[in-house]
């Protein structure tokens, strides 16, 4: 009945393969006069999700998470992962070979200072590190008496037998009905920003920014409709788009050539060299531009300025058409989610449903909207202790039966042409334990605190992050991930520059869409996360206010499991919020779902008060 077409459950990790691969890498490093090499989870665009041909870290270590790095020295090796992946890394990597290091608490540069010795030579691929990242590594090496040297070609590429070919996903035009703004208008908005930066040209190294600017989408990366590409936009004159020609139909090429010179990726380095020889000042995005790009420009005599790509902020602030599209996508997605949750409540108590079965069902309900283009990431579906693995991905080897008494956490999303969704719900099968209800309610209190926040214009995500943690901190617990990330419009489910986290320094501007997802994870027992997407909107008119105020509109529409709520932990205002949210969910979704789901929905959204 149910099947998954957009995701698989194969486990590509095989820790046994790491030892011979690390040994071969060490042999290759010795040939090149190196004593170590750093392997980031990155491609030449600093993408979060990589095509198979760029998964060097997974090939070497077995770790398949979306963030991390490894440093391989002659006698030891370290794998760096953040708090989302500490459990996953220990399961996927050979821990006798790799020391697992917390990426945030001990980043690679600090590890280098502490562990490299005088005379060590650490190699790096300048196409896989930003210029700032390379400078940080170089300083760390220098402090240790070692040296950092750029290496091309990448030694892993030399060793990787059967490496997949680069992707050739077809490029499509993103219709103005969804984009809301013509590409030519966007280019006219970008050029004055380049002038403000006192640059002659902007190098667009982030494929998301290329896609947004030229109103194109692609299929080079799983679950994100990206065409991997670069662009150069001069302050004056015609831009250049560097993209593999085999991805373009005649019609798409013709439309793009009305906007830009369409060239092959092989011409990109020559274009940068030409800019450098002309003495131009080139703006590079400090978060996505490879160190190699800066080396090419400056090596040819040009000047580089590093900072944020102005397109990132323009893209993050959605226009009215994109906002309307997001609302419509969430209504559609909410109906699919309600159908799933109603079905889950009927099936799970029988004790036969597995994590994979739940993933397949939810994807099927979304596909039945007939508008789903892909899931927005591989669904995280964790029963019991699997829910405590923040970015758990079920495989056929790990698939667990969802048993009575289990908390079940499911984090998923859809890619629709009018919007990208991301929602997490945690539900109980049977009766919850008292501790589960306490922890769930504390997470809910943090979620409500973000949802109801009113804050001055210019407030950053870092200033709001603690709102989500207060109730957890009161009993000495926390969660080891950010509270929220930006979300694109039929683009990446993880979009900068804004986020709600301790590191979120970008101001939250009206029109931005972010997630609101506090959680709690008890290792070996269960995980809890409640996630909705929120839109930054104009705040209330407060008499005497000295600054403009902003607030959040919750976009996601799906019931929050009332059975897990400990009512006496909630304030009157928090109960009122939950009741109002559930009334809105019920009123919006009732006309969109079948009778059986309607009956379930009426029960699931009853007032607490």
Describe the structure.
By secondary structure, this protein is of the alpha+beta class. It has three domains: 15-159, 3-Layer(aba) Sandwich (Creatine Amidinohydrolase, Chain A, domain 1), CATH 3.40.350; 172-315, 3-Layer(aba) Sandwich (Creatine Amidinohydrolase, Chain A, domain 1), CATH 3.40.350.10; 320-597, Alpha-Beta Complex (Creatine Amidinohydrolase), CATH 3.90.230. The chain is 34% helix and 19% strand. It has a six-stranded mixed β-sheet with strand order 4-3-2-1-5-6. The chain has a six-stranded mixed β-sheet with strand order 12-11-10-8-13-14, sandwiched between helices.
CATH architecture of the largest domain: Alpha-Beta Complex
Number of domains: 3
The description of the largest β-sheet is: 6 strands, mixed
Strand order of the largest sheet: 4-3-2-1-5-6
Percent range for β-strand residues:
15-25%
Q: Count up the helices.
A: 20
Q: Total number of β-strand segments?
A: 28
- The top-level CATH class of the largest domain is Alpha Beta
Q: Which fold name is given in CATH as the topology of the largest domain?
A: Creatine Amidinohydrolase
Radius of gyration: 25 Å
CATH-wise, what's the superfamily of the largest domain?
Creatinase/methionine aminopeptidase superfamily
State the end-to-end distance.
Answer: 39 Å
Structural class: alpha+beta
Low-confidence stretches: none
Helical coverage, percent range: 25-40%
Outline, from the CA principal axes? globular
Oligomer category? single chain
Task: Quote the average pLDDT.
Answer: 96
